[in-house]
Amino acid sequence: MNLTRLQRILDRAASKRIMVIGDLMLDEFVWGKVGRISPEAPVPVVEVERESFHAGGAANVARNLREFTKGVAVMGSIGTDASGRRLQDLLAGKKIDISNCVIDSAYRTTVKTRIIAQHQQVVRVDREKVTSLSAKALKKAVLSVRDQLSKIDAIVFEDYGKGFLSTELVGQISRDALSAEKIVTADPNPGHLIDWSKITAATPNRSEAFLAAGMSWCRSAKSPKKDIDLARVGKALLKKWGTKYLLITLGEDGMLLFQRDRKPHHIPTKARQVFDVSGAGDTAIALFTLGLACEATPIEAAEIANHGSAIVVSKLGTATVTRDELIASFKDDLSS
Q1: Could you list the residue range(s) of the whole structural domain that residue 67 is in?
Q2: Which active-site residues does the annotation give?
Q3: CA angle 278, 59, 96 (to 5 degrees)
Q4: Residues near 284 by Cβ (< 8 Å), separated by ≥ 6?
């Protein structure tokens, strides 16, 4: 894709409105250095220098979209605890619409704490409780989306398996959105049984794709184009879910795009340095969905997602990619 075409696609992004629905969480990063091993156990002692907080999970998808358009809304559960209040502040600070969120005093906000020393993650601590929506909250969520559909261009379901998404919620919202000819995409969680039938696209990683297809994981071939097992998985998921597109992310091997009645299309990775893969999948689905909403072809949307993912893995922490960084990445690729 040339730069003129890329800029034309990105110019359309500013007018798009996208709603992200799924598991919201707070990402906490504790930064420090290791100076010694603990005398109490054979573990490093991290001397903390600073802390930082970011909106994570489905909220990180929204953060990535917010770099390209003002029209971003999230829907998910947030507690009234200190972490929940911080998450609300972070989202409001980014001018991401949180009016559709379920604010619940009984809900414990999910927090992922990563301890980083010398640019390496030492350990991650998760504080979470899987909680499903009540029938009343589910009905309210469905009606809320239905009322706003005329103003929405695309819906992204981000499933981290924390309970906000269910087959009933996804099914009702998807049917309404697809009937209104809206784009619907999902980053599925194979450990959470949800029927993703008939949505526009799904973006699992390789291991998630094998699990979702019910097939035993196999070591990847040297070239994704020659990965027979992965091809079988992609074909099976297209049939199972009935999606138009299936974009399987492959880490250092890039991405593989499956479409009905077409050969899989491989997009090689653009990553040159990998410091932190946290949130790379969030960036991938955000930019793939944005590309489709901006009338990019599936291959163009996948290329945009691939470049964006390559940029965020070169950063430490849960990161986003800007328009300027994305254009610069394409320029570098075209000049190399």
Answers
A1: 3-25+57-112+128-335
A2: 282
A3: 135
A4: 187, 203, 247, 249, 255, 305, 306, 308, 309
Q: How confident is the model at residue 278 (pLDDT cuts 50, 70, 90)?
A: low
Residue 121 lies in a domain: no
Q: What confidence tens digit (pLDDT) does each residue in 100-125 have?
A: 999 999 999 999 999 999 888 899 99
- In-domain check, residue 195: yes
Percentage helix, strand, coil for the chain under 3-state DSSP, each rounded to 5? 40, 25, 35
**Confidence category of residue 231, pLDDT binned at 50, 70, 90:** very high
What is the number of domains present in the chain?
A: 1
Q: Is residue 66 assigned to a domain? A: yes
The amino acid present at 122, given as its one-letter code, is: V
Q: In sequence order, what are the residues at sequence separation of 6 or more whose Cβ sits closer than 8 angstroms to the Cβ of residue 49? A: 31, 32, 33
Look at the block and give the residue holding tokens 């979470």. 128
pLDDT of 274 strictly over 70: no
pLDDT at 226: 83
CATH number for the domain spanning 212: value is 3.40.1190.20
Question: At a CB cut-off of 8 Å and minimum separation 6, what does 154 contact?
Answer: 16, 18, 19, 182, 183, 184, 185, 289, 290, 292, 293
How far is the C-alpha of 171 from the C-alpha of 267, rounded, in Å? 31
pLDDT score of 191 more than 90: no
Model confidence pLDDT, tens digit, residues 235-270? 999 999 999 999 999 988 899 999 988 999 999 987
Q: With 0-12 CB in 10 A as exposed, 13-18 as middle and 19+ as buried, what is 42?
A: exposed
Which candidate, 17, 11, 289, places its Cα nearest to that of 153? 17
d(Cα 12, Cα 294) in Å, to the nearest integer? 6
